[in-house]
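Entry 14. Structure prediction run on the chain below.
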Amino acid sequence: MNLKGHIFWSCLIMIILWILIPDITITSILVSIPFTIFPDIDHNFGSHRHFLPHSIILWIIVFIFNPSIITVMIVFGTGLHCLEDIKPRKMKGFALITYWKYKKLFKFKYSSTLWLLINFINSVIILGWWLALK
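Output returned:
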C-alpha cells in the first residue's frame, strides 16, 4: 500500500476506535497516526519490509518502560500498518519480509503474510488488554 493509503485507512480506523471506545483519547490517536507509517523507514536498513520495523517488537520494549495509552496506540498503529501491507496474491520479491538486504526472513511460502498477521493480531490483543485494565 502506498503512503496515502496507509494514512487514509489508519486515520479512518483510529477515528472509528475513538468514537466507539471512550478510553481512547484524541491525543493518543494524533500521536500514533504518524507511527502507522513508521515501518516504511526500513529502506535505511538496506531493504524494504525489514522484519524489525514491520513488527511491534520495538514498541513493546518502549511500552514495557513507558506503559501508557499513547504507547499502546503506537503498538496498534504499527500492527495496523502490518495488516495494510498484507497482499496475499502479491507476496513476492519486494513485498517479502527480510532480515538483511533482500534475504527472506523465513523460507516457506506464506511466511511474510504470517509475520505481518501475527504482529497485527498481537497489537489488537495488547490494545484489548490495555482497555480491559482501564
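The mean pLDDT is 81.
Filed with the rest of this week's runs.
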